[in-house]
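Exercise: predict the fold of this chain.
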Amino acid sequence: MASLNAQYIKDHMANIHTNDSWARAIAERALAEAVTKIGTISADAVTIDAKFHVTAIETKGCVRLCTEIGGVLICTHINL
């Protein structure tokens, strides 16, 4: 039996998102962060900081692409 650890779980998250669902998850997270950032004031616009993390996943032969918004990572895997 394989040992269950964080990397094993992350490797198996590869098929959670399609390109469309990943984009929707990013949009939802950005809007949630905008709500948090703007609070009770009104504004013409709010800027949300986002980071992208790209990692090679050799065991799966793919690249993991994660977007970080407000400390939350939303990841997808890109295969050849």
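Check your answer against the key: The first helix runs from residue 6 to 11.
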